[in-house]
Amino acid sequence: MWSGQPHPDEGHPPPLEAVPVPWKSVGPCKSHRESPRGLAETSGGEEGPAAAQLDVLRLRSSSMEIREKGSEFLKEELHKAQKELKLKDEECERLSKVREQLERELEELTASLFEEAHKMVREANMKQAASEKQLKEARGKIDMLQAEVSALKTLVLTSTPASPNRELHPQLLSPTKAGPRKGHLRHKSTGSTLCPAVCPAAGHTLTLDKEGKEVDTTLFAEFQAWRESPTLDKTCPFLERVYREDVGPCLDFTMRELSALVRAAVEDNTLTIEPVASQSLPTVKVATVEFGSTNTCALSGLARACRHRIRLGDSESHYYISPSSRARITAVCNFFTYIRYIQQGLVRQEAEPMFWEITRLRKEMSLAKLGFFPQEA
User: What tens digit of pLDDT does each residue of 180-198 get?
Assistant: First the structure.
């Protein structure tokens, strides 16, 4: 009899209630997912350490990848920085070369300008000397012509129609005396009457103004030794000689205290010379003597017409000086200016022209200390 339910032996699966299912109570659930550690614990006690070691290896590999990427990024940044630094170094080197070239061109231009200016000054001095010589010769010729005119006037005034001067009119002489006297008179008029006025001037024009010069071997050797390493040290043989023979005597004035100050200012290149106006300025006392007047030289103490004054360094005090004192100071300043230019490398000449220029400047100092100075206009 069939009751409506299949028989278990007919191959059908048993009902769900009959299948045994293992179950573990985990308590209150906080999440629907369990951690790998929990899963590892549930999977068995032997698989837990292997999973932890696997996690550690994964963390290490990820950190190594991060380090490698960071290292590559830093290397790229370092390469870029080195490349930029190299470009900047090349730019700095190029600008440095440009600056050196400009400085070299500036030095050459300064030297050429100084040489040109010095040459122009020397040519102007030569032209001035030639003009003065021509003026002197012209004045001599004028004096000669004036003497001739005076002599002719004297002869003409002594000859009148009533009593003619037979020396001016040889035709009035007798035939026996005309011949010899004619020649004699002509010789006399040109040789005796006019010769005192003509001969000196003629002799002067025939005089050749030539100046011989010879290099002093001792002085030239001292100059060459100084030129190899130019210095302003007064103990070197070359400058020691110039100081002893020229600079010292040229700046040795009566007022010793002011002379020492002037010498120090000239050596330091801090001396100022300027012309004075017609109005007198406030007086300046030096060695208990007032030299604020334009009629007294502050260096020599003599009564002279002072058209210039000097100022030492940044001092506001002025000292009036005579033309002779100014010429002595100017000669020394010109010498120091030239040797400073040589020391700075602005004079590019051979040794002998430089030596003769220094000799000329020493000659100016010698003439100035002897009292010779150019007349002021």
Answer: 444 333 333 333 333 333 3
Q: What is the pLDDT of residue 145?
A: 83
Q: What's the 3-state SS for 145-191?
A: HHHHHHHHHHHHHCCCCCCCCCCCCHHHCCHHHHHHHHHHHHHHHHH
Residue 298 has pLDDT above 50, yes or no: yes
Which letter does DSSP use for residue 247 in this model?
A: I
**202-215 per-position pLDDT tens digit:** 333 333 346 788 98
Q: What's 318's DSSP letter?
A: -
Q: What percent of the chain has pLDDT over 70?
A: 67
Q: Can you tell me the distance from the alpha carbon of 319 to that of 297, in angstroms, rounded to the nearest whole number? A: 8
| Strand 285-286, strand 289-290: pairing | antiparallel
Q: For residue 9, give the DSSP letter.
A: G
Q: How many CB atoms lie within 10 A of CB 51?
A: 15
Check: CB of residue 193 under 8 Å from CB of residue 200: no
Q: Which helix (H) or strand (E) holds 273?
A: strand 271-275
Q: How far apart are CA 80 and CA 273, in angstroms?
A: 63
Rounded to whole angstroms, the Cα distance separating 354 from 195 reads: 47
CB 294 within 8 A of CB 305: yes
Report pLDDT digits (tens) over 231-288: 999 999 999 999 999 999 999 999 999 999 999 999 999 999 999 875 544 444 443 3
Q: Are 306 and 229 contacting, i.e. CB atoms less than 8 angstroms apart?
A: no
77: three-class secondary structure by DSSP: helix
pLDDT band (50, 70, 90) for residue 157 = low
Residue with tokens 């573990």: 24
DSSP 233: -
- What's the whole-model pTM score? 0.44
Compute the distance between CA of residue 197 and CA of residue 144 in angstroms, rounded to an integer.
5
Taking the CA atoms of 236, 237, 242 and 245 in sequence, report the sign of the dihedral they define: positive
Q: Which two tokens stand for residue 307?
A: 């058209």
Which are the contacts of 164, defined by CB distance < 8 A and separation ≥ 6? 172
